[in-house]
Recover the amino acids of this structure.
């Protein structure tokens, strides 16, 4: 026990700075720049949606931070801009030690994914979603091979500070904003929503896509009255597992409905 306490204390100087950056000061433009080779299969046609183009000319306000991106909301509230970020820590000693201690205590922990592996997995998932599930995810445009042609983007961070970002230097996804998923089942008739959820899962499954993230509320949302998959960062192509994953999510939602919707009545 003392040994693990010693390791935890030893790891704090390595872990606290990154924890501070993730919570107190989450958005840092420097985390969005990375040298990565051009990948042909990640190419997409130019953005031609006039409404979406107009939204990029106006400031986006900080909304949240996920495991793969900073999320900003458009001025009209119709779009979210997900700017991909990267862990700049080359020596994740503190994270490894804390993870080992949490495992020893029996607490949950996540495997540390090194930056190159994380980048490739995230971009492959994003490309997969845009090519085969654009309607099902609400994706409008993805920018995985930075290039000229789009206006610079103005971002307002959580402190209201302005950042001008050169779009030829960052990678991002522009997505229609969806309403929260699970609360909708407490406010609207559940049958149409559940059927929409079933249809969404079938359509994604038919493309051989599997979502490796098991969350409900963080993965799905309501857009124009339909259920959509808002978090695509864990998408992989795995046709042999697709149907099984479809059934998993349906059962998980049904358990949630049985517990929470009934209790709310």
């Amino acid at each position: 026990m003392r040994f693990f306490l010693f390791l935890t204390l030893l790891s704090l100087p390595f872990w606290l700075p990154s924890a501070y950056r993730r919570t107190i000061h989450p958005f840092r433009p420097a985390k969005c720049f990375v040298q990565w080779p051009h990948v042909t299969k990640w190419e997409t046609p130019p953005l031609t949606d006039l409404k979406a183009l107009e939204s990029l000319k106006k400031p986006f306000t900080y909304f949240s931070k996920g495991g793969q991106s900073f999320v900003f909301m458009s001025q009209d509230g119709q779009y979210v801009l997900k700017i991909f970020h990267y862990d700049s820590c080359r020596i994740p000693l503190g994270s490894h030690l804390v993870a080992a201690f949490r495992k020893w205590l029996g607490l949950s922990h996540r495997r540390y994914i090194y930056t190159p592996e994380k980048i490739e997995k995230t971009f492959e998932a994003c490309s997969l979603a845009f090519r085969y599930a654009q309607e099902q995810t609400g994706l409008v445009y993805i920018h995985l091979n930075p290039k000229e042609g789009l206006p610079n983007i103005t971002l307002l961070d959580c402190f209201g500070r302005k950042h001008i970002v050169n779009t030829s230097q960052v990678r991002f996804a522009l997505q229609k904003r969806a309403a929260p998923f699970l609360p909708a089942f407490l406010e609207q008739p559940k049958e149409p929503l559940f059927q929409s959820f079933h249809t969404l899962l079938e359509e994604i499954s038919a493309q051989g896509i599997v979502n490796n993230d098991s969350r409900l509320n963080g993965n799905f949302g309501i857009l124009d009255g339909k259920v959509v998959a808002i978090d695509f960062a864990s998408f992989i192509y795995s046709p042999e597992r697709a149907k099984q994953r479809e059934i998993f999510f349906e059962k998980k939602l049904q358990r949630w409905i049985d517990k929470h919707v009934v209790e709310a009545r």
The first strand starts at residue 60 and ends at 65. The helical segments are 2-23, 50-56, 93-105, 115-132, 134-137, 182-187, 190-206, 239-264. The chain has two domains: 31-84+116-177, 179-265. The chain has a mean pLDDT of 85.
